[in-house]
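agent: user wants the full assembly modeled, not chains individually. Plan: 1) parse entity lines 2) check alphabet per entity 3) run joint structure prediction 4) return tokens. Steps 1-2 passed, two entities, 428 residues total. Proceeding.
--- entities ---
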Amino acid sequence: MRKFVLILAVVACCVSACQNISCPLDNVVMLKMSMYSGNEKARVLDTLTVTLEGRDSVLVNRIYNFDEVQLPLRQNASGEVTDTFLLHWSLATGEEGETPVRVTDTLTVHHGCTVHFESMDCPSSVFHHLIDATCSRGLADSVSINNPAVDYEHYENLRLHLSPLSE
Amino acid sequence: MSITRTFACIFLLCLSSGLCAQVAGTTTKIATGEGTLTVKGDSVERFQGVAFDHTRVPTYKEQPLFCGVSVGADLAGALMAQVAKFGQYEAQARFNFKQRYFPVVEIGVGTSNHTSDRTNQTYKVHSPYFRIGGDYNFAHNPVSGNRIYGGVRYGFSSFKYEISGPSFIDPIDGSAMPLDLQGVHSSMHWGELVAGLEGRLWRFIHLGWSVRWKFRFKQKDNAYGNPYYVPGYGDNTDGSCFGGNFCLLIDISDIKNSKKH
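--- prediction returned ---
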């Protein structure tokens, strides 16, 4: 019986010993878009700036030598939103002093919004599910949805297939 | 979670102390044909009247098949409902077979209206639940009224909850989107392993502690994530949690016996 009591006391100490809270660092989820050439993931040496149509704010500023970008999506309590991103490409010519060629693509993403409750001690966030994505044919050739769930999992959501000229 | 753990800790420590007290202090008087036999703990200490050459404690086999019904209420859950993040108002009916086997039905209403200091989110729920299961009495003496038991439960709750809190700020245009979820439906099936102690307080009134390890079987998914608190289950942050209760029980069969005497 004394052993039983001792075991109970030890269990009590273990139960009340510690508590971990592991909240995501950032409660804003981002759409992850990778660059593809054919079926292979491609590294782009050109410079890319991304803005949202009708707004001045820059979402991605002059990145180069990249193979993926992360884009924020708008939130809407009533459900679905269409975001139109402008992809401003500045093509590297390879020759010093020469003015780079500028190309702008339009990427349209239609998505739904869902509130996600993580726990009482972690701030809630808004998850998105992609419904449709289209793009103009400038430097980009096409876009496809790889994983429609935009959440904390950081899956590759969109694949931007680049035209053969840009490879 | 911390409240639950704290209560579980208190339950365990009280259970431990109760067991010690029981071992040290249980006294049973057994009426015999020629005197009274006094049993302290599990051993015989002295005899009154004519001494016998053996110290016999009644066995479980000698007990009738059906020994009665007791009903009770969880006092700790009701207290937690008033002062803690969540709690429950729970009643139970317990059937007694041979003083050894105790099929149990527990019905309650789980309630929570908690606002987190850290995130300022508020969670509200007020829904019923039920559990069925059974306990097994490990105590040596079946007629003392004191029981050391282990048991299992199956629990189910179908409930609706609300979550509200600070608005979300749009990462692009800075506009606010309110966090206000109303009437979100979910349900859960779960199991429990129970260990407890029950003692006779006075005649037909019993007092009992139990600690419970609860584990999820199945939960109805919804688009908004896991509910924070599930009525009858407790903190739903992980796939399992600890809980406990502190029950006041009235043994109906003991009421009848005390009236006869």
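agent: reporting back. Residues 24-166 of chain A form one domain. The first strand of chain A starts at residue 30 and ends at 37.
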